Amino acid sequence: MNFFKLWELSKEERANLFQRTQVDAAELLNAVRPIIEEVRQHGDAAVVRYTRQFDGADIPVDQLKVRPEEFTQASTLIEPFIRAAIEKSAGNIRAFHQLQKPEPFWIKEIAPGVFAGEQTTPIDSVALYVPRGKGSFPSVMLMLGVPAVVAGVESIHVFTPPLPDGTIDAATLVAADICGIHHVYKTGGVQAIAALAYGTETIPKLLKVLGPGSGYVTAAKRLLQGVVDSGLPAGPSESLVLADEQADPYLTALDLLNEAEHGPDSSAYLVTNSLDVAQRALDFLPALLQKLPPQRKAFCETVLSGHGGIVVTSTLDEAIQFVNEYAPEHLSVHVRDLFGVTKQLRNAGEIILGEYTPIAACNYSLGPNAVLPTTGYAKTFSALSVRDFMKTSSVSYLTKAGYEDLREHVIHFAEHEGFAAHAMSLKERKFRTDGKAQSETLVPPQPVSGLGYHILHANPSRVVCKRITRESTIDVEIDTGERYPDINEKLTTPFHFLNHMLEHISWRACMNIGVSTSVTHYPFGHVICEDVGMTMGYAFAELWRQQRGCGVNGEGEATGIIDEAMTRAAMSFEDRAQFCFTSAVPLHERVEDMLSVDLNNFFAGFAQGAKCTIHVDLLKGDDPHHLWESAFRAFGLCLRQVFGPNPWRKGTTPGVKGI
After folding, report:
1. What transmembrane ranges does the database entry give (predicted)?
2. CATH number of 3-21+236-367
């Protein structure tokens, strides 16, 4: 068993401590290439053939994908305490990754009139690779599946090698089911990576693959990098245990064995500045090894006499320097000043603090992700996270003042770099009097005068309204005729979620609704929501006036539902501006790219613009998206009732006097 005193080692011997198990990359790549090409050319047939060859499982093509009844059967094959462990871990992992989820949209003024930010959206499709080389790994299924679901990926597909009888490990299937993922394929290895990269008759072509695998899987990802995003590099398991003179030698010895038992290609070191702690930990190891099953004992002995063992340094600072240079996958810290030392640790896939936090707890149940960078990649890569399943687009916006401030600087930059068209796009830029860009031949819009509301078109079936303020211009169109083919494309406010909610109003009211915005200042959520609500309210009030002569209800009440959420809404057009809102459940501060209070402002603005009375009562629900979705659905259904035909009410209002 290796026992090193760092001050006694030569430069070359020190360098050897940082080496991991080496594989012949060229040999692996040569072995992988023909398999990839076969799958590319022959699809499912090649996948089935290689699965039979490498996994000993003879699986018909039509059974490559796990069927619903196999999920049901899997739940009967595991012990209740295993399911309880999976559910407990899933809850913690989900809670951690929910906190990790980035803000969907932000934008800030970085200079007067210059706004920049980011919008984060999920990747459209991902593949999750769950290995089964040295055992069953439902924990990997959770570590991959939970963040993918939290991120909002719509198309999630799992690939895992089958057992020789052609089934999938039952615990892994149960874990997938708990994640809410049901696209699972009975194939692994190189053939799985090639299939998901190119697509086959059964397996869709996917955008990204994440998850650890064998050297052959890693080689396949490397060869297919130009075809599919291969994500985080993950190789054999590795760990360091950092200890000072106050550490418990017995506990450090226990944690040293944690990753060493993964296999003979793993790496594991105890690094300490205390010769006493090192020697006592070494003394505990033989008895601990005897308690392991023969295979795991053999793995640990191979690692601790190869790429592992105990390293003693002269000082704690030198031990910390060793850790940062090694950049381990897992780092267990047993020191007196836990948080002070942690601030000095720069390179580690995960940092695990204190005696009560064994590495195993983090592997399975604590919450942070256990799919981590290995082989020194922790110097530049992070642990797998929700962000691996999302991508970010920068968002830029200039006001007129911001544009004018930057114009000359941008022209000078473009001309210096020789980009004439770049410079011309500013030099030749022309604007209408309202600040919008125009070409020489653009037909001017219908003129309107001054601030306030302007009805541009009105008849009993269609109203077009414009509202101009010092901050924004809002255009609203309502058409009660045949549904437009591009109905959803006519909603173009700066906020994705607000557009989505306006879609619900349009669909439930059975009316074509278009809303566009133009801002001269940054579009704060409360300003946009209130202004859009007021403009829509004014437009609907005009539609009410147009239709009142024919006779319509003028009032309505409806309940909107989606999944667990339900809202009741009531509305009456009787020239009384009033909005009342209650919620029987706690409201989340944010939903998607919006603040809940801003969405509330939409209804208040509508009541003010329409001079109508609105009551919205959120009755139940958990998901913030669903809560607001149910509210806007109920609101749209109310509008449908308000404008429902009622000849008896011809020429009247819903008020008591009927005038």
Report:
1. none
2. 3.40.50.1980
Q: Got the DSSP string for 50-74?
A: HHHHHH-----GGGSBPPHHHHHHH
Q: Where are the domains of the chain?
A: 3-21+236-367, 25-223, 399-427, 452-659
Q: Per residue in 526-570, pLDDT tens?
A: 778 999 999 999 999 999 988 887 889 999 999 999 999 999 999
Degrees to nearest 5, angle at CA 125 with 120 and 128: 110
Catalytic residue among 97, 262, 330, 615: 330
Residue 418 contacts residue 140 (beta carbons within 8 Å): no
Given 261, 329, 477, 555, which residue is catalytic? Answer: 329
How far apart (Å, rounded) are the C-alpha atoms in residues 228 and 224?
A: 6
Is 329 marked active-site?
yes
- Helix then strand count (H, E) for the chain reads 21, 24
Rounded to 5 degrees, what angle do the CA atoms 71, 76, 79 make? 120
DSSP of 273-297? S-HHHHHHHHHHHHHHHHTS-HHHH
330 noted as active-site residue: yes
Q: Which CATH superfamily is domain 452-659 in?
A: Imidazole glycerol phosphate dehydratase; domain 1 (3.30.230.40)
Report which of 369, 247, 241, 263 is spatially closest to residue 309, judged by C-alpha positions: 241
75 pLDDT higher than 80: yes
Q: What is the CATH number of domain 25-223?
A: 3.40.50.1980
